[in-house]
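SAMPLE LOG
Freezer: B-3
Tube label: C17
Construct: single chain, 307 aa
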Amino acid sequence: MSARGFSTSPLPMPDETIPPQSEADSESPTPTPSQLAKVCVVLYEPQDPVNIGATVRAMKNMGVSTLRLVRPCKYEPARLEGIAHDTWDLINSIEHYPDFDSAVADCVRLVGFTARRRKAKWKVIDPKVAAEEALGYVEQGRVAFVFGREDSGLPNEILDRVHAAVNVPTTNHASLNLAQAVLIALYELHLAAGDATRKLKGPRKEAPPPTADLFERYFGELQNALDAIQFFKTRYPEHIMRSLRAITYRAAVDDRELNLLRAMALEIVRFLERTGRVERTLSEDVSPRRPRHVTGRDTSIRPGPED
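STRUCTURE (predicted):
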């Protein structure tokens, strides 16, 4: 058996002195190790280097760092890194084993993933339950998530050794890629362990919610804009504005977004006024704001021929 990636820290020589620990150092909190440090992924006879690389990629994303390969196909580490960028730490620590028993000898819990339903009365669970149960064993020792060959999965002699079999719920097609199955399993494990440490950045600048006064100014300007394009010519303004209020409130816009909508409504009216095409349908007592100047149409009464 050859296992790559194990290292030990050298002990200090007798004539070496260890510097005393400062009071500040002694009081600094020690980070709690992740539960996933006790989890390893075991690939039994993987046949394609692409799947090994994709497994490394899934592990890096989900916080699992120990990969054990049982009689794998030949692969180049550089190719794995080309599939899973920035994962040299995992690739350099991949462990190789000549048989399954030696790969899981130090594990207290073995979880095997299979697409087949067994006739024997074995415990069959889904990935979420498997993750929750597996984390209950990490205090006692290592936990192994075991995956089989791409063409035939785990053989019966391996399934006989696992403590629980996992089926990923699918349609009747039930043909997941090896790395896809690994990702699903580790995703559930990642969530169950509470290791979702990546925090997404929020907006560049948080905007406060709009005030009631700002909302009313917007609705007045919006109604004015709709009136300017004769939107209310065949519609009831009260019903339309009530619906637009409901839509706006449901969208939960912030101050910056509402001001953008205000600017749009104002620009509609200004454009029509600049081009002399404002034709309103609402009376002055209904419209929230009167036009700032007379429209381009000549509405004066001219004398007829008989006058």
